[in-house]
Amino acid sequence: MMSEAVTHGPRIRVLIVAGNDLFCSGLASLLGQEPDIDVVADASSGRSGVQLASERRPDVALVSIRRSDLEGAETTRAILQRSPTTRVLALIKRPGGDDSSDRDEIERITRAGASGFLARNTPIDEIVTAVRDAAADSRRLVSQTVEEVLAALRTSDCPKRQHPGMDPLSPLELEVLRLISRGLDNEEIADTIGTSPREFEQLASSIRAKLGLS
């Protein structure tokens, strides 16, 4: 059932990493019915999930804690290394299980940076709410980070002190940072500033180079 609470603004980008193809497809279909959620990719292995997180930069990743190649903790840690603003919600068999191996894995995935846990049989409305909450937290982090960069750039000698010889950001590049802080994705930013996606990628590369970012 589609939940009634719908947020306005950029759609939430979700990645699903789950070994069971049927479960993965079913969850993707249900989440895709929500008007504010886009399932941008799904993966049947930890490694492919990490690669997709790096490419798609989802707001939220739903990750099964049992993987054949990478366990949940390894997958979570690798996803957050590639896409630090992604929020990981771990999918578990049941909350508070008695299996000591389950408890150990939950502890490891928590230390790896997971934002929360969901039982695999959680009602879809509750999963949607958890995804929205996690995405809101992710976007607050993006906004805070970009605003810190902008504040630093407003300090006249700060960029030169941090990166000697670094070229200043142009007004257009500063505008791109502000749009990122509002949670817009690459395509939306390209449309807003009137460039093609390819030209936007070149602009983004210039910003990363000037700020010394990967």
Write structural notes for this entry:
- With 214 residues, this protein is of the alpha/beta class.
- Helix content is 55%, strand content 13%.
- The chain has a five-stranded parallel β-sheet with strand order 2-1-3-4-5, with helices on both faces.
- Helix 2 runs parallel beside helix 3.
- Residues 156-165 have low confidence and may be disordered.
- Estimate the helix proportion, in percent: 40-55%
How far the N terminus sits from the C terminus, by CA atoms, comes to: 41 Å
Shape: globular
Nearest-angstrom radius of gyration? 19 Å
Q: List low-confidence stretches.
A: 156-165
Q: What is the average of the pLDDT values?
A: 77
List keywords for this structure.
globular; single chain; five-stranded parallel sheet; 9 helices
Topology:
Elements: E1 12-17, H1 21-32, E2 37-43, H2 46-56, E3 60-64, H3 72-82, E4 87-92, H4 100-112, E5 116-119, H5 124-154, H6 158-162, H7 171-181, H8 186-193, H9 197-211
Parallel strand pairs: 1-2, 1-3, 3-4, 4-5
Question: Can you summarize this structure?
Answer:
Helices cover 55% and strands 13% of the residues.
